[in-house]
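debug: dumping io for the single-chain case to check the tokenizer round-trip. Nothing else runs in this session.
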Amino acid sequence: MSETQQIYRIKGMDCADCARTIEAGVARLEGVESCTLNYAAARLTVAGDIAPEVVTERVRALGYAVDDGPGDAAEAAPPWLAWLPEQGAGGFVRYLLSRRATAFALLGALLILPGLIFVELLPMLGLSSPLFSVTSLAALVVAGYPVARSAWQSLRINHRITINLLMTIAAIGAVIIGAYTEAGLVMVLFAIGEALEGYTMERARQSIRSLMEVAPAEALVLRPCIDCQGHMGKDGYSGGPCPFCGVEEQLVPVAELVIGDTIVVKPGERIPMDGRVTQGMSAVNQAPITGESTPVEKAPADEVFAGSINGDGALEVAVTHLAEDNTLSRIIRMVEEAQERKAPAERFVDQFARWYTPAVVVLAALVAVLPPLVLGAPFWGEQGWFYRALALLVIACPCALVISTPVTIISAISNAAHNGILIKGGAHLEALATLQAVAFDKTGTLTAGQPDVIAVRAVNCLDPQGFCAPCDDLLALASAVERRSEHPLARAIVRAAEERNVLAAYPAAERVTALPGRGVSGAVAGRQVVIGSHSYFDTAVAHAPEVCDAVAQAASRGHTPMLVGEDGAYRGYAVLADRVRPSSRAAIAALHEAGIRHTVMLTGDNAATARTIADAAGIDAVHADLMPAQKVEIVRQLLAEYGAVGMVGDGVNDAPALATATVGIAMGAGTAQALETADVALLGNDLGKLAYAVRLAQHALRTVRFNIALSIGIKLFFLALVLLGYGSLWLAVLADVGAALVVTLNGMRLLRWRGA
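debug: decoded output
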């Protein structure tokens, strides 16, 4: 068996400590080279020369389960629970009843009620019965068996003290001193609290799985009729594609589609696969994928994404990716992988908890023994030091602390994914929150990345704005030549002629010849037309001095003038420019409002063009005429000055600078390059999403810090109560469960955060 990487979906985890137990247990297996368990995604990754059944058996031995089906590790509720709602309190009850261990916790809660009511809450009623002790012990056994079994297996296999062991020791100790109701109540509250943590984390995971529901499971594909029974035998037809029926519409699962298939998307339907439009025009709502707020017009040759919503026009789309490799699948896969890349705060909490739990056991032993030995204080009794040590074990349980960070990170990353922002890990999320400066590439980032015609001037122009018959004729003549070119400037001329409805005024040019570094020429309706640079016309075609002044002024503003001649005579010029994105200025202003101190543009373009674009976008500083290596050097200088720097580019040409920055941010509407290159990808080419991502990261970091402080603060407060003799076992566990619930719900608020 060769060394491979195996992926398992784990069921039954209720907290981050469960993940560490499984991770440590599997890592001890012979043949395992590395093992990581992503608690947020419930995904276990194992590398090594080991059989899958061995891994599965170890996970089960530790008290958990491996999901054998496709998809995710969500707990499937039995059919008889279908009447319960999936969310809210009913959803929690449904979750409890769908798993054996948590169902036992619910049964334990019923059994503990007599003791809780008549022994702990209302002792003044004077009602007592041995039955209360029996039901309390029964509650302890029913709810505590899965906890104690997991604690023992972790101790036996991993040689590790877990949270479950702390609770088991506390419950057994309470039984020893005769506090049966407290013993049962501790275990029931702990088991239900753990289940509540598991349920809330499952709700957070569902926010990622909901992305999978965006794309339909079936597609209407155009395929030939095969083995047509209606025409079998006609003209020698004996099977295979029917020559009489041609293609027909077939509804098939998307998993059966292959690259090159043509699918039909009707008005209002969701697009089932990534593809390229071959027929039809429509406005497509890409918000589920890219977060764009307005529909995008699609025509033949345009790309569409699985999960986006078709508008009023029917489309035929050629499939370009398999189901497992389309944009939506890649986003989901990368978000799950992102959850494995822990933030520094999360790694700190994990390391802290690793040493903290054993230390608590030692401290509890010292609390139980030292005061009676040194001070002669009572060891037994309701508030004896043995009892206080048991309460210390309970209150020191780090559940709230270890859950406080991962639930916040997964919620923030999920929120970003639903808004067209792919953040590839908690470390990058935390780094986003600390950015002080942001550097931008120009073309395709601050600008649209394609030139547009912004002015046309014929030699006999009748309108100062260039909207007259002579100028239209000049544009039509130029477009006849440029139709034969794929150069971006040529496409801009053709696009402008289309917008003015003059594209068909002349036939496409013949004998088109490129003039390297100078322009292009061709024959149009028997006339020789040349389009070229100002320097070329200075030597080849005579033109007036005022023309030289006009085109020189345009060039000084960073624009590109193109002069047109006909049969050796000057006919006029057009001015082209790469326009600033409409959203760029507002996006830069929003970044400054979010606390970014400095913005800078890095470009290989000339200084005049760069300064014009920077002024239009509101950029603080400009560095022009740069090679890729020079961009890297400037990013390093920014790092030295500001500490944390973001670099925004197209994800391909700016790869070295993206990699050098604290956070590399790629622009790209779901392209593979944008998704793979940087730490953060803005899927909709909307620069305004960057400020949203920064504010979201800042809010997430504040939430993490608040959760950690709250968890530790509650622990210290109740620890003081316990040591002073004012606490109890069941109040201690209630405080722990309450703290875990508060920090979990606080972290999950980021799922609904919208920038307020």
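debug: round-trip ok. Confidence is low (pLDDT under 50) at residues 70-74.
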